[in-house]
Write a structure and sequence with these properties.
alpha+beta; Phosphorylase Kinase, domain 1; five-stranded antiparallel β-sheet
């Protein structure tokens, strides 16, 4: 049997013991520690509530091999690729690596505030031994499967991350000055935690700048979005960087729970509706209607901007040290049409050709007043109607960006009604 001690670390100074995660063969269990259960901190209120103090057996299934809240701490896509390459360098085949092996490798170097012991991976710290462009260039070769050996620097910088695209966790000067450090570790004074997405050779040249433009549109539409920057990397292209919302000043951390983690679902195959997310938000945020309205605004924005890759890992909530929840800032917002125009997350049961009436139906089901819902839709469409000028200002003039303008203006008209 393999066991991991689960902790909750809001600061480097203190780790709160949460419980024990164990596996034997294909069976997985979790149990809260008695002392943690008495604290009243709900790390996964919907699927792993504190009232379940007895041993909880999780039924592993594709995409959710361990309880969702801990599955969130595992990397996926790019991070998992790097992690498995690291295991292979130690003589371990990827097929022999279990989810608990992956969590143990990361140990305290996870996204969010959950940490795991014992840690089997290498010591991690912030470094500045390579240039960002060199790290990005190596990431491209790994993405293309053009090299067998992965630089340790890239594993440390990208291993904890999720999502399919190559990326790295870095620290940048808080005053906006030059320089960067990569990896996970204590932030020196005057530095902030950021995540950088690298373009691949399959991407169009506008991809990084276009995501930056979408963040501007989202902010204009009234959404809460993190600070972002564009880095021109010689020989690679423009990279999109975003300030991490799971890290706070002074080295503090925030617990993060995605839609997939909260609902214990596989984001790749889940048939979810924004109604589920609105209800989950109302429950997690203790009925705070401002948070519910923020999710509705996000749904409207994703529809109007043709972000159809709005799966359950692309929405999250944050829990502070007092156990209070709020919606995370918007992330992974970009032009993302999907095959046949089907959304990853439906709107009032509709996945294709969503119109104003469907969004108003969604609002009604969530208890949002019609006048309020219509105001939000008008605010969102007033912002998204400016897509052409925002993309031009960002320097996006390629064929994909031109197609995005046409698609967004059409979608905006449907939402405007």
């Amino acid at each position: 049997m393999r066991e991991l001690r689960v902790g909750l670390r809001f600061s480097d100074a203190t780790t709160i013991e949460v419980g024990t995660l164990a596996e034997t063969g294909r069976r997985v269990w979790f149990q809260y520690g008695a002392a943690f259960a008495d604290l009243g901190l709900e790390i996964s209120p919907l699927r792993l509530p504190l009232r379940q103090r007895d041993l909880h057996e999780h039924q592993p299934r594709p995409g959710v091999p361990i309880p969702g809240v801990f599955n969130d701490a595992r990397p996926d896509g790019w991070g998992l690729k790097l992690l498995h390459r690291a295991f292979q360098s130690r003589g371990r085949a990827a097929s022999s690596v279990s989810p608990l092996d992956e969590l143990a490798w990361l140990g305290p170097h996870t996204m969010g505030a959950l940490v795991f012991e014992p840690c089997t991976g290498p010591e991690s710290a912030l470094n500045d031994a390579v240039e960002l462009a060199a790290l990005a260039a190596h990431a491209q070769t790994v993405w293309d499967d053009a090299v067998e050996e992965v630089l340790p620097e890239l594993v440390r910088a990208g291993g904890p991350s999720g999502g399919a695209r190559p990326k790295a966790l870095v620290a940048l000067p808080s005053d906006g000055g030059p320089g960067f450090r990569y990896g996970e570790g204590a932030l020196p004074e005057g530095w902030e935690a950021w995540l950088v997405k690298f373009p691949t050779r399959r991407d169009d040249a506008d991809v990084g700048r276009r995501e930056g433009a979408w963040m501007q549109l989202a902010a204009s539409a009234g959404l809460n979005v993190p600070e972002h920057r564009i880095f021109n990397l010689e020989g690679v292209g423009d990279a999109f960087a975003v300030r991490r919302f799971d890290r706070l000043p002074g080295g503090r951390r925030t617990h993060v729970l995605s839609g997939a983690g909260a609902l214990d679902m596989d984001f790749r195959t889940a048939t979810a509706d924004y109604q589920h997310l609105l209800r989950a938000t109302a429950y997690l945020c203790a009925g705070d209607q401002s948070q519910v309205l923020e999710v509705f605004r996000l749904a409207a924005f994703n529809v109007a901007t043709v972000n159809q890759d709005d799966h359950l890992k692309n929405i999250a909530w944050l829990m502070d040290e007092a156990g209070a929840w709020r919606l995370a800032p918007g992330f992974d917002l970009t032009y993302a049409p999907q095959p046949y125009g089907e959304r990853a997350t439906t709107v009032a049961g509709v996945g294709r050709g969503v119109q104003r009436e469907h969004l108003l139906e969604l609002a009604s089901r969530a208890g949002i007043k019609g006048l309020t819902a219509r105001r939000v839709l008008d605010e969102v469409t007033a912002a998204t109607a400016r897509v052409e000028s925002v993309l031009k200002q960002a320097g996006c003039c390629g064929a994909v960006s031109e197609a995005a303008v046409r698609a967004v203006l059409d979608a905006t008209e449907r939402v405007r009604g």
